[in-house]
Amino acid sequence: MPALISLENVSRVYGSGDAEVRALDGVSLTIDAGEFVAIVGQSGSGKSTLMNILGCLDRPTGGSYHVRGIEISSLGPDQLAGLRRETFGFVFQRYNLLATASAAENVEIPAIYAGIDRTERQVRSQELLQKLGIGDRGHHKPSELSGGQQQRVAVARALMNDAEIILADEPTGALDSGSSEELLRLLEDLHKAGRTIILITHDQSVAARAKRVVEIKDGKIVSDTGATTKRSENTLYERASQESSAWMQFSEAVKMAFRSLHANLFRTSLTLLGVVIGVSAVVAMLAIGEGSQKQVVASIETMGANLLFVRPGAPGTRIRGSAIATLTEEDAAQLAELENVIAAVPSRSGSETLRAGGADYKTTVDGVTPAWVIAKNWPMAHGTFFTDEDETRRAAVVVLGATVADSLFDNQAAAIGEYVFIGSTPFEVGGVLAAKGATAWGQDMDDIALVPLSTGMMRIFGQNYLSSITVAVEDAKKISETEAAAESLLLARHGGVVDFNLRNTASILESVEETQNAFSMLLGSVAAISLIVGGIGVMNIMLVSVSERTREIGVRMATGARRSDIMMQFNTEALVVGGMGGLLGVLIGLGVSLALATSGMSIAITPTPAILAFSSALAIGLIFGFMPARKAARLDPVIALASE
Ligand code: ADP
Ligand code: MG
Fold this sequence. Notes:
The chain is of the alpha/beta class.
């Protein structure tokens, strides 16, 4: 049967060239199961280096090391972690307990990595603490325990997985003489119970308690009292190695994540705030974008979805209508004859000042035919619209929009029959239109005055060509056919020249939707940027967390955590931040949207942005947490343990 532990000509060299330190220099040592060995030497003689190699925390630079006949250099990081988990229990001079966990939880850590379920873990850790005389201290944090008690917790932790070998590096170094004595007795008891004890110390009187003393000096063994007990290995209690389930590991990681986030509550809140702002911005911005789009579409539809607009000038020209003389009243008359057309209203507009009594008001005056009322489907508030007869007579009558009537007269009803001067011509007010409010782009539709087209041409505009023709169709579904018919009619009338342009409300809707989509994209990308900034915050805090907790990572690795366990722990922490931030952000974003909605803004709340933002927050936790987690997982256990 191979020896439990066997070193052959092992060396460990730090640095190179002039800075080279041979911490271990050709050490050969065999330790059998059940021995109680003290390794003694002055400070700097290489004891801790030896212990790190024995405990598979570090690899030798030369020679070979076998545990139960297995060559260590052939093992990968996870296999080494497995060996530490099942074979070695570490007791350090500075205890190395996790400050945020209770004594009992500290004892449980190695069992978590061994895949032992929670109840069994708790029972066993309580048992161990009981045996070590601190059964009533399990729920205390390490800072609430004395040095001797903390070291007992560390011993209990070392025993948690029934480790065959207890490796203790200067375990009495920080203890008073009473506690030292108790600890040494505890080690003796463990030895009697069958465990292999390797005790490292610079103190000869401590070393004297062991059955075998190996002295080391300048990295070389200078004396060895020789092997003592030999016991057959089968007296040892062997724990079947379990593979921990991924789910159990994850739920442990979530628990630890909450604990460590709780330990830095203020910092956690600030990191969360970053994610929350990003997520709530996405949710609220998209609700606003969507809402304003819906509103615009709705108000375009109130304009009438059954209208075709003909304007003079070729499509794309930006010249004002007044400069182009291509549309005529005859065009309108012919358009009115087309199939599916209810009315074709020619119009000429201009900006004019209206005067009544002492008041002046500048507005748009439209010369239109009586068919305007039918085309626009616009009711009257007071009086009547002008008639075909007024049109033929070139009567000086005017119909006022609500805004104009309110500006010129005390009340709308009183305006009927009064006179309004446009230029030097008095016009009798025949009616006032019902109020319609503003268009989607904020133009007041009621800021208008209408006169018969013939009168307008003669008395106001002094021209006989049109600024537009509005065509109302009967069946809005056939609007494109009607548009095509109108186009060929006009083309024929204009000698094949496209000196007009035709649009329908549907195409206006389309272009408005395009603008609105661009607007939503803009809002969305601003929100997405703040989400990324939140993610960078997560990464930053995770990196800080990794460097702050390097020693904790070292302890976890020494007690058997694989790289994947460490990786999972930090990834989970970032994921928890992302998830909590996402959830809070969605709630706040919805709250803000609702508040804006009640204050009168048009908001559309749909589930998509919330789902999108929440999953982005989770993704951000994963992505931005990955780098710090990998950094943690790749730490060298020895270096991590040595960090402050
Ligand atoms: P001991 O535990 O007996 O006090 P160590 O094993 O810690 O001694 O150190 C042995 C020698 O190796 C010392 O000279 C120390 O300075 C050196 N040493 C230990 N660790 C490192 C390291 N990471 N880099 C360089 N030199 C080291
Ligand atoms: Mg040391």
